[in-house]
Amino acid sequence: MAGSADVHDVVVRGARTIDPETGLDAVCDVAVDGGIIAVVAEGGDDTFRGTAEVEASGYVLAPGFIDLHSHCRDYASRALQVCDGVTTALELEGGEIDVADAYLKTAAEGSPNHYGFSASWAVVRMAVCGLDVRSRTDAFMDFIGDPGWHRALTRDQTKQLLDGMRRELADGALGVGVLLGYCQEASAAEYLSVARLAAEQGTATFTHVRELARPDSGLFGAAEVVTAALATGAHMHICHVNSTSTRNIDHVNELVGRGQDQGLAVTTEAYPYGAGCTGIGAEFLAPEALAYQGLDPTDIRYLPTGERVSSVERLDQLRASDPGGIAVIDFLRESDPDDLGYLMRAFLTPGTAVASDAMPLVPASGDMTEPIPWPIPPGVLTHPRTAGTFSRVLRWYVRELGLLDLPEAIRRCTLVPADILRDVAPGMARKGRIQVGADADLVVFDPHTITDRATYDEPTLTSAGIHHVFVSGVPVVRGGTLLSDTRPGQPVRGTA
Known about the structure:
This protein is an alpha/beta fold. It folds into two domains: 7-63 and 434-482, Urease, subunit C, domain 1, CATH 2.30.40; 65-425, Alpha-Beta Barrel (TIM Barrel), CATH 3.20.20. The protein contains 15 helices and 21 strands. Helix 13 runs antiparallel to helix 14 (406-413).
C-alpha cells in the first residue's frame, strides 16, 4: 500500500482494470513511475497521487495492444496504429535484411510506439540469388515477381541463406520472417533448414504459408508449418491465418489445435477483415492462381489508381508494369454469409492473437517515395486494417457479435502476442500485463463506443473511443488526440 507522501508520475483513477494474466477485472487506481507500473490498487486508493492524473471512471484500462504483424515504417502509418491502441508494432512476417540498420534508422526518426524486426528470409534469399537488394528502399516489393529469386537454391546458396539469417539473429532480429507463399519454388528441405536454424538459435519463425495450385492450399500450407514444428522442435507461427486458410479455416484450426495438444510450439494470428493486401505481382495473384481460390480479377483493387481490376488482360498489365503496387484482395467476401462465417471462426482457436498486417500508405500521387504528413491528407490509401484492426475486434467481435467477451478479446490483443515472443525477446514478459513491475504501455477506452472508422474507401480514418494511450508511461494519445511530437517508442530486440 502506498504511503500518504507517495507521488507518482502518472495515476489513472477509477477505470475497470483488466489484467489478462492474473484475471484481474476490477475498478482500480493504477500508478506509474519511470515507465513502469508502480501500484495497482483495487477499489481505488486516495493515499497517493500523481504529478499527472487521468480520471477514467466508466472506461476500461488495458495493457497496450501488441501487433506482431505490422509493415508500417513511416511515422504517419505508425501514428494510425497508436490511435488504435497499439503500443508495440513489430515487423515479423516480412522482416529486414539489415536489422541493425533498421533499428538505428527507426531510433533516429523516433517512433510513437515500440518497434522490432525479424530477419527476412525472402530478402536474404533475393540477395543470395544475385539481386541488388541493398540499393532498394523496399527490396521485397521491388523484386516480388522477379524470376531471379523464384527458383530452387543450390546447397551452397542454402548455406549462404542460413548464414545470412544467423547474422541478423545475432544483431537482435526477432526470429525469422518467412514469406514462403511468395516463392513457391523454395524446396521443403529449405524450409525445414530454416526451422532447424530457429530451433538451434532458440527463436521462432513467422510464416506466410505456401499457396498451392489447389482449392485446399491453405490447409496444406498450414500442414507444412506444423510438420516443420514436429520435425525440428522450432516455434512455428502462422501469419494471418484468416487470409491464407479462407474457406479451410475449420480444418486449419483443428490441425493447429491437435498439434498444440501434442506439445508442438505452433501459434497463429488473424485480423478481422475479409480482404487481404499485398503487392499485385505476388505469385498467388496470377490469373490462373486466382481461379483456384474462387476469385477473379474484379476481386482486386489496385490502390495506386484506386481501380477495380477489370479483366485478366488488365491484371497481367499491372503485374508486369508495377509488381510491387499495393492491391487489396477480397479473399473472403464479407457480404456473403458463408464467407463471413469463415472469417468469424478465424478467432475461435483460443491461442489466436489479433494482428493487423498493417500496410504502408499509398499517396494520392501513387509515388511511394513521397513522405506522408500528419494529419494524413485526403486521397491517401491503404488497407483499413492499418487504422482499425484492434478497435474493430472490440466493436464487432465483442460488442456486436458476442463471440468474445471483453477480457478474452483484450487477452488476444495483449498477453497472447506477448507470450508468443516470450522466448524470443525476454522483455516481452513485462508487456501485455497490468501488474506491479510491468511496462506502463496502457490504453484507456470506452467499451461502449470504441469502434473502427476506417473503411476501404476512407482507410485512414482513426479509431474512436480510445481516450488515452501511454507508451513507457508517456502519453501519446490524450483525450482522444494524438500528441504528434511525442515519440517514446523503444526497440524490442531478440536474444537468439
